[in-house]
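Collaboration report, partner site 2.

Our partner group contributed sequences for two proteins of shared interest, and the home lab folded both. The records are reproduced in the order in which they were received, starting with the first partner submission.
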Amino acid sequence: MIEGEDLLLCPTCGTQFDTPASNPPSGYCRICDDPRQYIPASGQAWTSLKAEAGKHETKWKQDEQNERIWSVWAEPKLGIGQRALLLQTSHGNILWDCIAYLDQPLIEFINSLGGLTAIVISHPHFYTTHVSWASTFNCPVYVHSLDKQWLCRTPLPSIKRVLLQKQYEKIVEGVTAIQVGGHFEGSMVLHWDNHLFIADTFVNVPSGFYRKDRPKGTTSFSFMWSIPNMIPLPPDTIHNMWKAVKPYEFTATHGLFTGWDIRDENVKKSVLESMKIQVINQGFAEHTLLDEE
């Protein structure tokens, strides 16, 4: 039995609530009823992990170039459909972000790798079933305090949920959570061993994956307040995001979905170039971000 399997869960975003699924509210999911997200045209629906059991299959895949990185996801998706990334560090396994669906095969697989030392979640859209995950793997969960108002589950007495306070927080040796803001005030990326795990804090775009002989002005990332509703972030916010990651070197980024990976010694430069392209095309030809190198 998985903790919380009888609790209310929004199938659109995957967020789990303290409310029993047998007693759904008449209102909306508070995560979806926000200008960054959406209520689907069909209206609000509710489900639970128990109701979804057997309707999805968890998948995992080892990274082709770094065997210490695993992508984890569910098919068909439950919620937004993001992947989680499991990092096999020398100081324990770190799960970056959560997927809503959790089943016994995935539990057994993760335990076969040694379980989890910590879960770190980029932003509220991926809080999903994190209390169930933390209970299952008996590990702490790290989220940023600036987004604490979006937490929809009360932690169990046995669960340690850590509200990060600073812009830079060490999770374990060599693994740093970086609060960059933007999509949410507390939105984070994760840095480990020249890899930057970006969720949708930096959004991969199609033109960013093919890296050879691209014309000037080709962007690799976008920077959005709302991804589904396509509302971009303002230049000052984008500049602050750059300042947050500028001290860190990285040659690979790992994004929202399986396969959204870029490996390029110039990928950090591509982040800055993409920021400049967005700011210029928003009509700010003299913004201070454009002076960054």
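Second partner submission, folded after the first:
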Amino acid sequence: MEGGLCTGFEKLVMDADRLGSYQKLLGGLEVDDNSLARDAYEEVDPGGHFLGSAHTMRNYKTAFYEPALSDSENVESWEEKGSTDMRNRAYERWTTLLNQYEPPPIDEATDEALNDFVARRKSELPDAWY
């Protein structure tokens, strides 16, 4: 799209966040006694709820994928906290990652070899406007 002019670090971070949910989905579903939750159905009376059941307590932390950038607050709470939208959360995320980045140690010979490789490849490129 538009020769890449619509790309930015925010989009990259949002796409990575979305890929996390795809990874969770593509991991498949386990079908076993725990996932079928028969014990929960036996424990909860008709008209009751499953939120406090032993099964829910055992599984609620790992049962769902929680995207890092999403905000599951209700609208009122979201507005009270400043109405930060996805684009701004993505901006905060990539700037935080960039500020926290520490280059890995690299020995001098490897660094020199990489620089030589890049210089050689650049010299092999045809002259162009870019």
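Feedback sent to the partner group on the second submission included the following. DSSP finds seven helices and no strands in the chain. The mean pLDDT is 90.
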